[in-house]
Amino acid sequence: MTPALPPAWPERAAWGTAPLLRAWQQAAMEKYFSEQPRDFLAVATPGAGKTTFALSVAAELLGRRLIDRVTVVAPTEHLKTQWAQAAERAGIPIDPTYAAGKGRTAQDYVGIAVTYAGVAVNPLAMRIRTERFKTLVILDEVHHAGDALSWGEGVREAFEPAARRLALTGTPFRSDVNPIPFVSYAPGPDGIPRSAADFTYGYSHALADHVVRPVLFLAYSGEMSWRTRAGDEVAARLGEPLTKDLTNQALRTALDPEGSWIPSVLAAADKRLSEVRRHVPDAGGLVIATDQDSARSYAKTLRKITGEAATVVLSDEKAASKKISAFAADDSRWMVAVRMVSEGVDVPRLAVGVWATTTSTPLFFAQAVGRFVRARTRGEIASIFLPSVPRLLSFASEMEVERDHVLGRKVTDEDDIFAAEDDLLAQANASESASSEEQSLSFEAIGSEARFDHVLYDGATFGHEGEVQVGSEEEMDFLGIPGLLEPGQMRDLLRQRQSDRARKQKPAPAAATPAPSVEQVSTHEQLAVLRRELNGLVAAWFHRTGQAHGITHAALRKECGGPAAAIANAEQLRARIDRVREWAARKSG
After folding, report:
1. Which alpha helices (H) appear in 91-142, and where do they start and end?
2. What does each C-alpha distance from 414 to 331, 408, 564 come to in angstroms?
3. What is the C-alpha to C-alpha distance for residues 577 and 531, in angstroms, rounded to an integer?
4. Which residues contact 298 (CB under 8 A, 6 or more apart)?
5. Rounded distance between C-alpha atoms, residue 208 and residue 211, angstroms
């Protein structure tokens, strides 16, 4: 069946997906059709428009009679439906209900949509179908083909005969020894094979093109107390240097629905949402929960805060996809979800998020943040509330870093940025498990209290000295930021509010008492001074060179070593300060 959409590339994209091709989509289309490859890997940041690009390629190939059928492989059932809806608007009817072994579909359809799991069930049936027609296979979020050995083998067996294969991804690839089917690899500088994308469009480029929203991360710390299985009571501050186990226990205490931390943060997030809705009336919020019980409890808390029922989406509900679609179409305030925030779930009006899950992997972080960056109007800003956990803060400060799939090394270090995702993702996605029951027996949250910590924006940290009470004017300096601002305006406003508050809080100088040096103040004050100095130098470097803050911070980490600036120690911060000054001196010379 010929699609209703005639070949219109490069004048416009598939109708209903975008009025015109974006610059990156047109550039990718030009490369694709100039090279005419059988396999093509496009890596584009979430929200950039991978679906529009893929459907535009499909429409052009169908129009040129280079293919007869389209098969879309997606990670989830919900995304199958979402792809079918987008393809229908583009004049390419796709059957999202097809199952391997079903045989023929109605003649009304040009293609089908299946899941990776569905392909693995019966790859031979999919192979027979692929062989019968000149087929374009669109592998959405292709890194999922490496999630299980059977998935990768099934994808390779089913689609090896395909006329064309278009692979898409928008999140960091896994790092393991299993190659992803139909992805090319080339040795890196260290000789280790890395995936080679045919076209890459990263977050930093998309942000510069106003294709995605900038993200404002609001970090909250606070005092936590809990009781161990041995009966010992432990108290610690969320965000301070702790062992991995203590950090996890402090985070779980903060996310306990019976404590004070999560209700305080949800209330702060709702205030932020109200401010955003003054400029974006249909803006919505999403709470990402660890499990079903927590999700229901958070929804009850939001009901008390807002007076409005929140949409609760649980992964094993048959109506989950319909709930997401209904929330995307209405103007209600909040949705609480456990699993249904994986890549590709399209709710463009999401503007405020709350990270209320114990999962802290690069892949899951990228998936979740990707739900908030889809731009609709220039000036829209995403606001995400995070616990002050070093790992999460590190991910937030490295939003612009692009990564490829690395082969040939085993992952044994959980703190490696490329650590395998399976266990933690399973923990986040599971509704109930024996491991969670075991944890509940060995751990008991006693109490929690939230404090506003700081804001992360464009790799830089902004905040006020000392502890900031939830609900205070100091907190509202950041919660009350307008919902529509250009990136430059956002940076200027954050600096202004930080400096204005510092002037108000600055006491009159004593005549005979000299100001303390950096070495004389307390540790946390010393670190705050050094971070501000470093951020100021990085900002000056940006104005001098145009290099984004996040890229500069990443370069400093590479040269000087150590973690992200938000969790670096004084010695590491001083080394980076000295290095920026060296750069400036060399450039001046």
Report:
1. 116-121, 123-132
2. 40, 17, 17
3. 9
4. 257, 262, 266, 287, 289, 310, 336, 356
5. 8
How do residues 486-545 score in pLDDT, each as one tens digit? 877 888 888 888 888 777 766 545 444 444 444 444 455 677 778 777 877 777 777 677
Across-strand partners of 334?
285
d(CA 533, CA 570): 12
Give the position of tokens 């161990």: 228
Q: Which residues contact residue 550 at a Cβ distance below 8 angstroms, ignoring those fewer than 6 apart? A: 204, 397, 398, 399, 400, 401, 458, 459
3-class SS of residue 318: coil
Distance, in Å, from the CA atom of 343 to the CA atom of 45, rounded to the nearest integer, reads 11
Task: List the end-to-end C-alpha distance of the chain, in Å, as a whole number.
Answer: 66
Instruction: For residue 5, give the DSSP letter.
Output: S
For residue 99, what are its two tokens?
Answer: 């199952």
Burial string for 114-145 (b: 16+ CB within 10 Å, else e) reads: bbbbbbbebbebbbebbeebebbbbbbbbbbb
Find out whether 349 and 311 touch, Cβ atoms under 8 Å: no
Q: What local confidence, expressed as pLDDT, does residue 305 receive?
A: 95
E strand or H helix that includes residue 435: helix 434-441
Kindly state the tokens that stand for 221: 């710390």
Vertex 296: Cα angle to 292 and 301 (nearest 5):
145
Can you list the alpha helix ranges (DSSP code H) found in 140-201?
Answer: 149-159
Q: Where are any strands of DSSP class E within 252-395?
A: 284-289, 311-313, 334-337, 350-356, 382-387
- For residues 259 and 522, what is the distance between their CA atoms, to the nearest angstrom? 30
Cα 86 from Cα 89, distance rounded (Å): 5
User: Which amino acid is present at 35?
Assistant: E
| pTM, entire model | 0.68
One DSSP character per residue, 228-252 reads ETTS-EEEEEETSS--HHHHHHHHH
CB count in 10 Å sphere of residue 88: 14
Question: Which neighbouring-strand residues pair with 513?
Answer: none
Tokens of 406: 């690395």
Type of residue at 13: A
Q: In which region does residue 344 sit, left (phi positive, over 0), alpha (psi from -120 to 50) or beta (all else)?
A: left
C-alpha dist (Å) from residue 180 to 38, 146, 235: 16, 6, 45
In sign, the C-alpha dihedral spanning 125, 131, 135, 140 is positive
List, for residues 564-576, the tens digit of each pLDDT value.
Answer: 776 778 888 889 8
Quote the DSSP letter at residue 565: G
Confidence of residue 152 (pLDDT cuts 50, 70, 90): confident
* pLDDT computed for residue 407 by the predictor: 45
Q: For the chain, give the percent of residues with pLDDT over 90.
A: 33
